[in-house]
Write a structure and sequence with these properties.
The protein is mainly beta. It contains 1 helix and 9 strands, in the order αβββββββββ. It has one domain (3-94). The longest helix has 5 residues, at 3-7.
C-alpha cells in the first residue's frame, strides 16, 4: 500500500489489470490505456505520480472526468487498480468504503 495513501488513512483494494504502456522519463513505464473487463480506458493525462522503493503510482484522468490510481510493481511487472474517482458522484473509492483522494 502506498505510504502516501496509508498516511491519509485510506484502505486500498488491489485489482490486477492489463495496461498499455510507453517508456517514459528515465525509462520508467507509464500508462497509455488500461482495460476494465472488456472496456478500454484511454489515459488522457497523468495528473499525479508518486513512488515507493518498488512501486510506482499514477493518478490517471480518463474521458468523462473519472480518475484512476494505477499501481505498477517493478519487481513483478504487474499493474493493479488501487482506487478510482467517480466524477458524476464526486466520490472516490478504495477498498470497501468511500474515500476522498485529492
Amino acid at each position: 500500500m502506498s505510504a502516501k495513501l496509508r498516511a491519509q488513512g485510506y484502505d486500498i483494494c488491489i485489482m490486477q489489470m492489463r495496461v498499455e504502456c510507453l517508456v517514459g522519463f528515465r525509462g520508467e513505464q507509464e500508462p497509455l490505456a488500461f482495460w476494465l473487463g472488456e472496456r478500454r480506458m484511454v489515459v488522457n493525462a497523468i495528473v499525479d505520480r508518486w513512488l515507493s522503493p518498488d512501486l510506482r503510482y499514477f493518478k490517471c484522468a480518463v474521458d468523462g472526468g473519472d480518475s484512476y490510481i494505477l499501481r505498477f510493481n517493478r519487481d513483478s511487472g504487474d499493474w493493479d487498480l488501487a482506487a478510482f474517482t467517480d466524477a458524476k458522484r464526486q466520490t472516490s473509492y478504495g477498498c470497501d468504503r468511500g474515500v476522498t483522494i485529492n
